[in-house]
Amino acid sequence: MLWIPIDMSRVEVIHQEIWLGVVQMPSVSRTLATLVACAAVQSSSARGAVPSLAARSRRIDATSEPPNAPNPSTAATIARLRGGEGGSLLASVQSSYVAVPPLTRAWFSVILAFAGLTQLNLLPPEAVQLDAAATMQRMQLWRPLTAASFFGGIGAQLIQKMYYLVSFGKELETTLGIGEYARVLASCAAMLSLVFHFLGWPFTGDGLIMAITVLCCQQNPDQQMSMYGLKIPYQFLPIAQLVMSYVFTQQIPWPDIVGLFVVRPALHSDPHPAPRPF
């Protein structure tokens, strides 16, 4: 219900003026005149109050925000969801992914796919682990490849291994070329599969990533890498990687140690050492 304020002093003056003229009318005419006067008073009072209400409403609108005005943070979130700022982030991720050399990128993609399927309980480890009987008798020749690409579900250990793979795999593939890099991966995977089979270990991914880390460090022994804010020379990087694996898992990283020694003899047997400046 809308309440309209009425100026009572004005009503009183108008009432007195009308009453002086109405008292001399007949009774019916007097009644009609009184009703018309009351309606006129209310109409004039309403016309005087409406502008003040409208003016007050305009003042409120001018000094306050619209009731449905979006929050700036909410507007930014909506813009990202609609492809505003999120589009540039997606483009950056896509460009970084495409910048990885093809063989390392393919291995990286398989590892992420296996991790996602494992996280959703759609991929049992037994389907991709090393199995000599399945490999030789049922001709499942992909087992050494899948065993090198399985790291369990999504977690801190997976992120750490993916960082090592992209960093050192990308550098090694760029240095050696895709053909030589494929040969190195195949020989290391075959050696690790043979050793892990006799030791009863089902997956070779940790050892293979350690192997490419050591090979990359051989190519650039004088470089340094920043790991968690520490500058570590490449020649000590495999040891630092073993320490970080132990910190993440609270277990001795035996697969990584085996991968370290698979390529360790090459550290001192390079037939063509690169010349170094004096």
Task: Give the helix/strand layout.
Blueprint: H1 8-22, H2 27-63, H3 72-81, H4 85-99, H5 102-119, H6 132-136, H7 143-147, H8 156-176, H9 178-199, H10 205-219, E1 224-227, E2 230-233, H11 237-249, H12 254-262
Helix pairs in contact: 1-2, 5-8, 8-9, 8-10, 9-10, 9-12, 10-12
Describe the overall structure.
It is a single chain. By secondary structure, this protein is mainly alpha-helical. It is 67% helix and 3% strand. It has helices at residues 8-22, 27-63, 72-81, 85-99, 102-119, 132-136, 143-147, 156-176, 178-199, 205-219, 237-249, 254-262; strands at 224-227, 230-233. Strands 1-2 form a two-stranded antiparallel ribbon. Helix 8 (156-176) crosses helix 10 and helix 9 (178-199) packs across helix 10 (205-219).
Overview in brief:
The chain has helices spanning 8-22, 27-63, 72-81, 85-99, 102-119, 132-136, 143-147, 156-176, 178-199, 205-219, 237-249, 254-262, and strands at residues 224-227, 230-233. By secondary structure, it is mainly α. A two-stranded antiparallel sheet has the order 1-2.
Strand content: under 5%
**Largest sheet descriptor:** 2 strands, antiparallel
Quickly count the helices: 12
Q: SSE order in H/E notation?
A: HHHHHHHHHHEEHH
C-alpha-based Rg, rounded? 41 Å
Principal-axis shape: globular
Low-confidence stretches at least 5 residues in length (pLDDT < 50)? 22-29, 43-57, 60-65, 265-278
Arithmetic mean of pLDDT = 75
